[in-house]
Model the fold of this input.
Amino acid sequence: MLINGLAEKAALDAENVVVKGAAVVLFAGAVCIVNELWSWQLSLISLLILSTVAGSIGFVTASAFPLLIKALPVAVVCYFAAVAGKDVVRHFYFELVYIKPFLAQTDNCKALGLELVNKHNYGACVARTSKTIQQNCLLVTDNEWSCRIVNVSDVVAAPEQNANPIFNP
Done:
């Protein structure tokens, strides 16, 4: 009886140790991720201090609310899935409503006497002599180019110029 009780307590303690360790890693790692995403550009010592504080908060939170820490990864994955889904829907809506009609009206920019850059990613029409084409692009077909960077000043016509601002981030 006593041995069974001690074994169950040891199993619960082992599970709590795993949950607490995971919380420390999640909270401390979140500081590093936020530092990169929001371009905080913290010094190494500041990053270390903030990660230690966040890890401590994670440890205390896991001690008080272990179920919350167990549910946190699921909530984070669901959040990112929802954000990604929203962006996919926005992209297809923008492509259907703005990009395809724009490319049809301009005959892939041929009607304007211009070159089409990045057709499959919010295509735009630019002059053949532009810096964008000269420095950043590779020829795909006769007037279609694939570019790493498109200078906004080189764009003569683009579908987003007539787009609803709600769909322009």
